[in-house]
Structures are given as structure tokens and as C-alpha cells.
Amino acid sequence: AIRMTQSPSSFSASTGDRVTITCRASQGIGSYLAWYQQKPGKAPKLLIYAASTLQSGVPSRFSGSGSGTDFTLTISCLQSEDFATYYCQHYYTYPLTFGGGTNVEVK
Amino acid sequence: EVLLVESGGGVVQPGGSLRLSCAASGFTFSNYWMNWVRQAQGKGLEWVANIKRDGSEENYVDSVKGRFTISRDNANNSLFLQMNSLRAEDTAVYYCAGQSRGGSFSVIDYWGQGTLVTVSS
To answer: How, if at all, do strands A62-67 and A4-7 pair?
Structure first.
């Protein structure tokens, strides 16, 4: 199975900060990568797919980049509603796998 | 509006069985690949299984192969997960989730709110 490694696993940030989360795949996955946001007690919400395509309705402060094995999710100006856990996931082959998550906390 | 509503979760003893259901509405169910994804308390997401639009192909994570079976009823817009030989490590919230954009290798873009399965004696 392809292993997805996210870093950092958690960190503290302030409203207005620029935030970057990285995701590394254990083998090349092209651009078959998605990013999700999850808040406590809620289902995941799709933010980015195909590594860099913004899902409809998602604010433009979210962006994704990368291909092959290395990917990033950037939040250009962190808002209060962005404090959450973020997951990357590949859909290149089976089994589909997720990264371990990055918890963005209030500083 | 796409709506996915899971049901059937509960407490079951190790070795027991449970059948989860997911009722879909607001979209053409037969056009979507459908998935089950689970999340243990305080842990990350784990993809469990998916099924092709017409039910002709199923895929599973190794840890559930031979124990879980995914199925669908397109006439009634429903997805199922039959879980047998349950283990403590199967304890999790199970999400029903859909792929609207294409074939087997397309993004999961719609999620239900989940149903909790607890395996405990």
C-alpha cells in the first residue's frame, strides 16, 4: 500500500498566518491527491482534488500544489473557521490511503 | 443537494455481525462509485471499501477482506456494508461516501455524517 506521510502532525497558528502543510507519498501518484478538512464530530469536507483544483464553494485562500510524491496545502490567510484537522489522500490505486492528519490549533 | 444518511451502527460482541446502510438522495445514485470510510475515536481516516456504479466491481482494504462485503441497491438508492467476524479494532465511525466525478480512481467528494460501530464484550 502507498503510505502518505503528513507533516507536521500538529502545530499552533494565529488568525492571519500563512499556513503550509506537506504530504509525501511513498511512491509516485501523479496528481491523484485530495485534501480534506475535518472538524470535531463532523464528516470530512473536500477542499482540493487533482492536487491543485479547488472544490466548488471552497474559499480561494486554500490552494494545493505538487505532483508525483510531494504535495502541499497552503492557507494564505488563516481564518478562525480554519482551525481543524487536515488530511491528504491519494486515489491512484487500491487501497486508497490517507495521511495521518495535521491538526491546526489556535496559538 | 446530495444527502447520505448512514444507519445500522451499534454495539456488537467480538465475532458478531452488523449490517450498515446508507440512504442516498438528491443525486443520481447509480452514477456514483460509493465507498465506506472509517475513523476510530481520536484517530485518522481509513478507507474500507468501494463499489462500482452497477455493483460489478468491489475493492477492499486488506484488513477487512473476507469479513466485510459492500453492496448496493440502485433501485432504492441504498448502499450497504455487511460486517462479519467483527474485531475490537473495527470499532469506529463508519462514513458512507460518494465519488461523483468519474471512474474508479476519482476523488471522494460527498460524505455522510457517519454511524458508530462499537465492538466490545
So the answer is: unpaired
B47 touches chain A (CB under 8 A): yes
Size of interface A-B (CB pairs under 8 A): 54
Which DSSP category does A96 fall into?
P
Q: What residue of A is the nearest CA neighbor of B60? A: A95
Of A36, A92, A98, which has the smallest distance from its Cβ to B46's Cβ? A98
Tens place of pLDDT for every residue, chain B, 121 residues?
999 999 999 999 999 999 999 999 999 999 999 999 999 999 999 999 999 999 999 999 999 999 999 999 999 999 999 999 999 999 999 999 999 887 888 899 999 999 999 999 9
DSSP character string of B31-86: GSEEEEEEE-TTS-EEEEEEE-TTS--EEE-GGGTTTEEEEEEGGGTEEEEEE-S-
**H or E segment to which residue A84 belongs:** none
Tell whether B58 is within 8 A of chain A (Cβ).
no
Q: For residue B29, which phi and psi values (nearest 5 degrees)?
A: -55, -40
